[in-house]
From TrEMBL:
Belongs to the CDIP1/LITAF family. Pfam families: zf-LITAF-like. InterPro entries: LITAF, LITAF_fam. It is a peripheral membrane protein. The keyword Zinc applies. This is LITAF domain-containing protein. Residues 62-143 form the LITAF domain. Keywords: Membrane, Metal-binding, Zinc.
Length: 155
């Protein structure tokens, strides 16, 4: 497309301040010199040092104020002093089938023909307590209510 051709009568006449100046600053635009000065200022300022935070160390897991005697353990985990590794740690519990489980399964089998139900739930199972540190079997809580201590203190 060709540029428009003006005759001398049609050409716009600019007077004084109206005449456009090429290379002048336009709104929202910075001249090259200002950009260079800004970049030099940024380089001359020292980079701001952000202090790095030290990674938080995990809290020790054996910060229990008191330990439960092994003969007092019941269904849930509890902090104990392990006689094997001598560390105060929360016990890990595991549900295992015991005498009560077998008895209830026999009764369910005779009455309802659903002898597998006691083996699928934890309601009728015994609880084994293991050390949270070394994994040693410490005690077994039976559904009948008694606790059998399996690990004794070694001197």
């Amino acid at each position: 497309m060709a540029s428009p051709q003006y005759t001398s009568e049609q050409q716009p006449q600019y007077t004084g301040e109206q005449q456009p100046q090429y290379g002048a600053q336009q709104p929202g635009m910075q001249p090259i010199q200002e950009k260079q000065q800004y970049q030099q200022q940024q380089q001359s300022f020292p980079q701001q040092q952000i202090p790095q935070q030290q990674p938080q160390q995990p809290l020790p897991q054996n910060n229990f104020a008191s330990a439960m005697p092994l003969q007092s353990l019941q269904q849930g985990p509890a902090p104990v002093d392990c006689p094997m590794c001598r560390v105060r740690q929360m016990t890990r519990v595991e549900f295992v089938s015991g005498g009560t489980t077998h008895l209830v399964a026999l009764l369910c089998c005779l009455g309802l023909c659903c002898g597998c139900i006691p083996y699928l739930t934890t309601w009728f199972k015994d609880v084994e307590h293991k050390c949270g540190n070394c994994g040693a079997l410490l005690a077994v809580w039976h559904r009948s209510g008694r606790t059998e201590v399996l690990a004794h203190a070694t001197v």
